[in-house]
UniProtKB/TrEMBL annotation:
SUPFAM superfamilies: CO dehydrogenase flavoprotein C-terminal domain-like, FAD-binding/transporter-associated domain-like. SMART domains: CO_deh_flav_C. The lineage of its organism: Bacteria, Pseudomonadati, Pseudomonadota, Gammaproteobacteria, Alteromonadales. Residues 1-222 form the FAD-binding PCMH-type domain. GO terms for molecular function: FAD binding; oxidoreductase activity. The keyword Amino-acid biosynthesis does not apply. Keywords: FAD, Flavoprotein. This is Xanthine dehydrogenase family protein subunit M. The keyword Cell division does not apply.
């Protein structure tokens, strides 16, 4: 591993004391960055260590909103969200991700910014436009079973790996940031990530000196919430496809619907076309199938991952059917149900 210096950030105001961000990386739990450094994919000259920044370890709440500090661990957040019916989708997604040990280390800010698990991104002997712009993409004609079918480009088909970010996308979370000049931004998580286009090495709209300080989520009533993850084994596996759904049905009509997909998009995928198609209509299996077709009309497989398109459709129809059925039996229910 290349030698680096360490700047210990005590408070977000300390950002202004960092000499340069050009070859710096923020270190939170380190569950992804340290691996990337060992593989010499990330070679920072300086680490900005966030572990002493106490304020960012807190979760605060008002009547209407929950604000999660950037350093709240995935375990702490899963536990908190489990006891909040309007956020239970988040708990389901977090507990479906990684392992207990990783969740104890991984943080809210770090989880949002984790990098893809594309095999070729981690193999420095292979071409990868994300790792080395202009070098090509070995996944296009390679083993691309885990890759994305939505939001891809001819330059990169990597999928975003985060379950948590998928749930936050469905819940319409807001990401709060601050840069070295003290400028604060409030970015809807649905707008945080950029599509790969011809610059797949750029993954978010954050600047190099811009630090995620917190994530907030409104405590809006959203009805029945389901996070369904399909993966190769029942633990410690990234999603092949996942569906994050919160749905409220009244008298058989879909009054409110929030949908996001994981494992299939170059970013956590807000299924807005499907939401728009479903809202205000009668909750039937035929409608759910049509909504899946609408959202997936632009989906494109690369051979090894073609199966994800019908798999996502079946998963979405199943999840919507389970949520609608539960809502019809328990019209005032707010929170999670688990489906198989
Ligand atoms: Fe690199 Fe993206 Fe191609 Fe994977 S899919 S090899 S991350 S350019």
């Amino acid at each position: 591993m290349k030698p680096f210096s360490v700047f210990s950030l005590q408070d977000k105001q300390d950002l202004s004391k960092v000499a340069s961000f050009e070859h710096s990386r923020f270190l939170a739990g380190g569950t992804n960055l340290v691996d990337l450094m060992k593989h010499q994919i990330e070679e920072p000259d300086q680490i900005v260590d966030l572990s002493s920044w106490q304020e960012a370890h807190q979760i605060s709440e008002s009547d209407h909103k929950v604000t999660i500090g950037a350093l709240v661990t995935n375990t702490e957040l899963a536990d908190f969200a489990y006891r909040q019916p309007t956020l239970s989708l988040l708990s389901q997604a977090l507990l479906a991700g990684a392992t207990v040990q990783l969740r104890n280390r991984a943080t809210t800010g770090g989880n949002l910014l984790q990098r893809t698990r594309c095999y070729y991104f981690y193999d420095t002997t292979k071409a990868c436009n994300k790792r080395e712009p202009g070098s090509g993409c070995a996944a296009l004609d390679g083993f691309n079973r885990i890759h994305a079918v939505l939001g891809t480009s001819e330059h990169c088909i990597a999928s975003h790996p985060s379950d948590m970010a998928t749930a936050m996308t469905a819940l319409d979370a807001t990401v709060h940031t601050m840069n070295a000049a003290g400028e604060v931004r409030h970015i809807p998580v649905r707008e945080l990530y950029t599509l790969p286009g011809d610059t797949p090495h750029i993954e978010t709209q954050l600047g190099a000196d811009e630090l995620i300080t917190a994530v907030s989520i409104n405590k809006t009533a959203r009805g029945t919430q389901i996070y369904q993850k399909v993966r190769d084994r029942s633990s410690y596996a990234f999603a092949l496809v996942s569906v994050a759904c919160a749905m409220h049905v009244k008298d058989g009509i879909i009054e409110n619907i929030n949908l996001a997909f994981g494992g299939v998009g170059s970013r956590p995928w807000h299924a807005k076309s499907a939401e728009d198609y479903l809202r205000g209509k009668s909750a039937t299996e035929a409608l759910f199938s049509q909504a899946a077709d609408v959202e997936l009309s632009a989906a494109k497989g690369s051979g090894g991952n073609d199966f994800k398109i019908p798999m996502l459709k079946r998963t979405l129809v199943h999840v919507l059917g389970q949520a609608a059925s539960h809502q019809q039996q328990h019209p005032d229910h707010e929170g999670a149900i688990h489906v198989r």
